[in-house]
């Protein structure tokens, strides 16, 4: 279990929290990890708060229970903070990554956080600039890799590009935009 | 139940899957209490009897009614009821003897 | 080449179906099994399989169409869950009575009511007495491997019984996991390109009658044939598992023992809970507590002798049932394991926990609590509902 990192993604229905967990799981698998990715299932309503999860490990994963004490929490939508207890179960050594234009200090102040490593990145702004739409999940993959050091960034980027190239065969501009978004988030994420 | 020796489960075809058409071997004709009689001189070969017979007991050759399969006819009388020939029908029912 | 890929339980089952390439699939989608047939339908539309896909209007019709297609000699599959399986109940025993080797992907989900879409074993457990072979899966890999084995088992002429392979709804069906997908050619070689039926409704040179009336003088014999077939299927299940292990390296059996041989305390469970239990066992053993697990993989035929043998060495046992038997005596596995141990000279002390109904969380703490209860088993009630609010 010491070799397993547990991650929780917070988003709203339709924002891609589930897809983010799946994409990150697949990228980690390609880089030799054992993985799980699963959403929290409930009524499917656009805009309602949702969560999804990852386990990433160097050993086969046998646990099939919920994740209640993640080491990393990622918030796709800053308006969830205060409405959803995004740091629930997160230990003092945990990592919180938020899609926001605020600085880590501002997030820390707003949520009255103690301990934790807090990272912020304007994933929505980046995705609008690179992909043309507010889909913050792909840039957040870059921020997650930077903040967690779980995967080798260059390898992860290459793998994601290959996967997207298959998925969006007829739309190379989408692949280019997504890769650019991940790179920018990796470089622009700020932590303290 | 019949006293004759019946096959055990090891001998029986699995799943009760049997050759098709075994109904032919079951002579339901002895269930009859009424008996149809065909009057060929009145028959117009409309084949209403053939269409309606629930036991496929109307024998037809080359599109013409040629008789009744008495081994299987149960004597239900539908053929006589459906026969449209007037004033006297081409199939009539009478008591089985 | 076999390769490691990320697949959910549903995707793993759909992938196995693609490789099995059945002649006919008739199905009606239902949560959480929807993706199995949805993904497969795409394979059909994309021409990746030669399957005739029958999109029926209900599960009753799905199973009826499967019966017809299997009677015609085809290799036939379907997928369902919960109310869908319940809606098939009328046809399930006909499939086994006609000895049709239909293979089903069943995703375990609570049956209504109240309405619930999450995992428990009540749907599959209620179908346990219909003459179907039932195989439970701990994870996606097992579901994939067992589905491939199921084709061989079901179609074996000593067996000829329909077979369902189950995953736990959402917990496995929707969890992306790392699995090894085998080479298409190896699967074809393992299961054989086509089913080799004894007879076929479409064989005009040898026409057959199916489903004829079977009264006092013959019905009993035909039911005994099914009883014998399911009893004998144990041998085939083991043979197929051994051949699978030899070819592909993963060994399966009727049951799986995890650190059981020297265990003081053991739990018995089915499905995904077994994985979590293994982690708990490792943690307890690190603290010097001799904990163990008996996983039941094959629930029908019921491996009574194997279970009795494995548990007769253990002092204290808790049986975990993810379904109630509605009999006032706990869950179905508990009742059957008690019966299996009736003739044991050294039966363990045993209690029952009914847990996880309607997807109620089962985590490490709860499983550790079960092992804790086994330390003072005399003070425990015969049956407890684990994790329910009083």
Features:
heterotrimer; A: 192 residues; alpha/beta; Pyruvate-ferredoxin Oxidoreductase, domain 3; seven-stranded mixed β-sheet; globular; C: 390 residues; Rossmann fold; 2 domains; six-stranded mixed β-sheet; 20% strand
Summarize this, please?
Chain A: GO terms for molecular function: oxidoreductase activity, acting on the aldehyde or oxo group of donors, iron-sulfur protein as acceptor. The complex is a heterotrimer of chains A (192), B (97) and C (390). Chain A is of the alpha/beta class and 192 residues long.
User: Based on DSSP secondary structure assignment, what is the total number of beta strands of chain B?
Assistant: 5
Uncertain runs of chain B are none
Strand order of the largest sheet of chain B: 2-5
Radius of gyration of chain B: 18 Å
Q: Which residues of chain A form runs of ≥5 with pLDDT under 50?
A: none
Distance between the termini of chain A: 27 Å
CATH topology of chain A: Pyruvate-ferredoxin Oxidoreductase, domain 3
CATH class of chain B: Alpha Beta
Please give the count of helices of chain A: 6
Biggest β-sheet: strands ordered side by side in the sheet of chain A: 2-3-1-4-5-6-7
Residue fraction in strands of chain A: 15-25%
Q: Strand count, sense and closure of the main sheet of chain A? A: 7 strands, mixed
The oligomerization state is heterotrimer
> What structural category characterises the helix and strand content of chain A?
alpha/beta
Q: CATH fold name of chain B, please? A: Alpha-Beta Plaits
Major sheet size, sense and barrel closure of chain B: 2 strands, antiparallel
Q: What is the residue-averaged pLDDT of chain B?
A: 93
Question: How much helical structure, as a percent, in the residues of chain B?
Answer: 10-25%
CATH architectural group of chain B: 2-Layer Sandwich
Radius of gyration of chain A: 15 Å
CATH architecture of chain A, by name, is 3-Layer(aba) Sandwich
